[in-house]
Every structure is written in C-alpha cells, then in structure tokens.
Amino acid sequence: MRLQGKIALVTGASHERGIGRGIALALAQAGADVACSDIGFEDQGEQLAALIRDLGQRSMFVRADVSDRTDVDELIEQVETTLGPLDIACSNAGTADWEAFHEISDASLEKIVGANLTGAFNVGQAAARAMARSERDGRIVFTSSVHVQMGFPSMAVYGATKQGVRALAEHMAIELAPIGILVNHIGPGWVKSQLNDNSPGLQTEEDEAATIELIPIPRPSEAIDQGHAVVYLCSEEAGYVTGEFLRVDGGFVVGKY
Ligand SMILES: NC(=O)c1ccc[n+]([C@@H]2O[C@H](COP(=O)([O-])OP(=O)(O)OC[C@H]3O[C@@H](n4cnc5c(N)ncnc54)[C@H](O)[C@@H]3O)[C@@H](O)[C@H]2O)c1
User: Fold this and answer.
1) Does domain 7-252 have CATH number 3.40.50.720?
2) CB neighbours (10 Å) of residue 156?
3) Tens digits of per-residue pLDDT, 170-207?
4) pLDDT of 257 over the 80 cut
5) Is 158 a catalytic residue?
6) Is the distance from the beta carbon of residue 9 to the nearest atom of ligand 1 less than 6 Å?
7) Is the distance from the beta carbon of residue 45 to the nearest atom of ligand 1 less than 6 Å?
8) Beta-strand (E) ranges in the chain?
9) Where in the chain are the domains?
10) Is the pTM value of this prediction over 0.90?
C-alpha cells in the first residue's frame, strides 16, 4: 500500500482493455483513491469506479474532454471537491489514426493533436496549478509511447504529439521540481487496446504473431504492466526521478535496433 492516502486522477481510463484502466487499478491496489475520467465509454468508466470501490478505495467517474480546457478545469474541481486535494495526475487519454502522410485530413490532425498534446498540456497545467494551490508535493505521469524514440509508417501526427508530450514533460519537470512536483512519462509498447483495433499491422493472428517476434519478452503488454510502472513513478522510491522516460515495452525498442 505504497500510495495509501493519496488522491489520484487518471484520464482516458474507461475502456475495459485500455491502459488507463490498468493504471487506475494499479494505483488503487497501491492504496490510492482514484478518480477516473474519459470522453466516452461512460458505462465502462462507471464500472471501473465501482471496481475500485470494491478494492476498498474511494473512486468516481467524470466525463471530460481533455482537449477542452473548461472541461479539464471542471474535472479537477470535481475531483478535489469529492475526494480531496490532488496528489497524482495521470494524463493518459489519447487517440490515433493510420493515414499516409499526404492523405492526413484536417479533422484527424485536429483530433489527435487535441487529445494527445493539447490534452496533455491542459491536464498537466490544471493538475500543477491544483497541486501548487494546495502546497502539496505532487506527481504527474504522462502516457507517451515508444514513438518518442522511433517512428512508424502512417502515424506522423501521432508520433509528433508523443514527442511533444516528451518535451512538455521535460520542461515541466525542470520548472516544477522546485515546488515539489515531479513529472515523468511512460512509454508503452504494444497493448491490445481498442486504440489498436484499427492498426493495419495488427488485423490477423499472423500479424500479431509477427509483432510478438519483434518483442524480446514475447507477448503484448498487459495494461497492468503499465500501471505498475506508474505506481513506481508515484512512489516514495521514485522521489529523485523527474523528467524521465520509463519505457515499458518488453524490450521492443532495444530488440529492434
Ligand atoms: N495501445 C498501445 O499499444 C499504446 C502504445 C503506446 C502508447 N499508448 C497510449 O496509451 C494511452 C491509452 O491508450 P490505449 O491504448 O489504452 O487506448 P484506449 O483507446 O483504450 O484509451 C484511450 C482513451 O482515451 C480516451 N480519449 C480519447 N480522446 C479523448 C479526449 N479528447 N478526452 C478524453 N478522453 C479521450 C478514449 O475514449 C479512450 O478511452 C494513449 O495515450 C495512447 O496513445 C498506447
């Protein structure tokens, strides 16, 4: 129960196969009270909050669009009013499209930048303001990606936003450490979440087998693998870690290159 007494928020937490659910459950298993948020899958978000309450922790679900600053400010306000001052913010919401570079639409650009980069900024800034206001030490963890270290075809906008999240996390880490807020990001490898359901390289069992061959630990990541990494970054043991990228990819990046 390394995080007993801590109040946490996880965005993009609803979907039952998603990384956010793994993060939320790992934080709750470590003793934190966890607010879950998402723009969709509200039934699954409410179920997750109920699951966390079954674990003995307080929880709530709040619908919010992270690309909308007003939504994010209201989200943080609701969490603090209901659960108490925020200690941990996990900015995990994200989205992806697979499109050849010369065919990327304005709508796709706006959606991906809005959720992945503007969303990370909105959640990071609102969380930092709340933590500074309550004069509490805090932890902010972004979900970036292995895209921080390598490119993939037909994912230019997604990759650019994830590299943007890396820059955001590093700049925030420098500015916020003096007031006790540590900022890091995790880099999941392949998780079989709904985000990947449209991935052209993961449509068949043969596709999946070929992907597994590229991973030194030969399996996809479970969402909870990502959650355990987040718990570490939010723990006392990580009290001297900030501006860091913790890749949780089964060795995919080092195995590929
Ligand atoms: N699945 C992978 O292999 C993988 C690998 C690396 C990084 N990631 C990142 O992990 C994070 C979680 O993705 P996932 O794979 O669990 O997929 P997911 O689709 O299950 O989770 C993403 C969640 O974000 C929500 N969301 C999208 N736009 C939003 C918005 N504007 N406001 C609020 N919520 C919004 C979605 O509704 C969804 O529930 C994302 O940031 C993604 O980029 C995923």
Assistant:
1) yes
2) 16
3) 999 999 999 999 999 999 999 999 999 999 999 999 99
4) no
5) yes
6) no
7) no
8) 7-10, 33-38, 59-63, 88-91, 138-143, 181-188, 245-248
9) 7-252
10) yes
